[in-house]
Structure formats: C-alpha cells, structure tokens
Amino acid sequence: MSRFSLIVLGLLTFVLTSPLVRAEDAAKTKPIKVLFISGGGYHDYAGLSPFLTKEIANRANIEFEILRGSNDGNKIPAILKDPKLGEGYDAIIYDLCYGADQHPSAEVYSQVFEVTKAGKPTVLVHCAMHCFRPAKDWAEFAGMRTHRHEAFGPFPVHPADKNDPIVNGWPEDWTTKGDELYVTDETYPETRKLLIAVSPHEKDKDGNPKENVVAWQHTLGKGRVFGTTLGHDMKTAADAKYLQLLTNGLLWSCDKLDDSGKPKAGYEGPGPDPRDISDVK
Fold this sequence. Notes:
The chain is α/β, with parallel strands linked by helices. The chain is built from seven helices and twelve strands. The strands form two sheets. A ten-stranded mixed beta sheet has the order 7-6-9-10-11-4-3-1-2-12, with helices on both faces. Helix 3 crosses helix 7. It is globular and about 55 Å long. About 2% of the residues have low confidence.
C-alpha cells in the first residue's frame, strides 16, 4: 500500500471514530423509548424518577416517559394488569414498591410477565424485587428471590463476572455510601450474577460472611431482564458508577450494549429529557 493510501486510510479511520461523527450517528438514530413506572411506599419516587431518567438519558440515546403511581404501597397501579402495558415503548423500567406482604392475586400484576415473555426488554430496580413478596412467580420473573433487607448503611460491592459488559470496569473496592442490602434467598439456574455484596452482619450456613447478589441478568421467554437491588435513595442513586450500571443494564436488555460495555453505534448520549406524562391510577 502506498504512503498516500495509508494517509487516506488513517484520516478516514479518524473521521469515522471521532466523537463528532459518533454524536451525529446518535442524532440520526431513533432513541430507545422507555416507559419508567415508579411509585409506592418507603421511597422518594418523586425525586428519584426524574433524576434517574435524566442521568441515564445523558449517558445513552434513550427517551423516557415517567408514569408515577400513588405513594400508598397498597394501591397497586392498574397499569400492571393492563393488556396494553408497554405498547409503543421499546423497554420498561420498574422502580416501584407495591404489594409487599399483601399476598395479592397474581391477576393484578400478571400482565407484566406476559409483556416480558413476549420480548419486551425489562429492568427492575431496588424495591421492585420486594413487590408482591413472597410470590414465587414474581421472584422468578425478577430472577432472584428476596424477602427482607439488612439495616441501612454502607457496604462494599464487587464484580461477580468481570467479563460481562454490563459491569465492565466495575472497581473491586466500590462501596455504597448507604443503601439497603437485600438478602438473597434464592437465584435461579439461568440467572447470571453480576455484582455481589458480602454482608457486614450475617453468616451463611457454613459460618462465612453471607454473599448477596445485588445485580444480575436473565431471560424470561423472549425478554431480557436486568435487575439490581441497589438504589434505595440518593446516596447510591447519585453515584456515577451506579448510574452507569443502570444505563448498561438497560442497553443490554435492549441489545444495544457492545462487548466492551459501551453503547452500540447511534445509542451514545445525550438522549432527550424525560417526560412526566401522568400519574398512574
């Protein structure tokens, strides 16, 4: 190859990989449209919902619409059984806290399963794992069963699978400034553990510090599911590593995360600002 050809090839490579070109690709790519369903008891969802969606949209080409239900954890939103749940959206995030220890009929939330099984990318955040506990069907949908958490406080979190792109670059010494450590009762054969937190207080059956899964992935039917029990309040939610974890998990569920843990071409941030479209009844 001539010197001139090498120069042209080098210039072409620079142009195609430059931030400006990547930003233009993202501008031409239709954003991933995500429905963010939140609400319920014990958490400041009015503050968390707009913060999380805006920060994730800054990191990826994602358009959010927020549906926020009652602050009463006993008032389960009817949308969870709506046959049209998720229509018009590419993915759904559930960051909510309803029906804990109520033993409600599965009829009030079963549409959630059907939507994911049909192929809708799904993300579950924090108390979404304690919704409708101890219902086994909800735990199997989530990919991990848990029915309680330890006292609020700091605890270290380390990667269980360094090769997974969702947690690519996660530091060994990361510690949340304060959160609720959800106790893992059971994981399922197809659940891929991503992040582990060792309990500061509890022991396992062999007398060793108990390990709890705090981030994972699995599939339900045709749908990819990412879950994390982290994120009780702003002490964790405002952390840059946590925000990247949520972004990567969402992109992975939509098959828009590359093997290095970066958004695929056209899905880099910033995305549009989120819209708070209505309250859920």
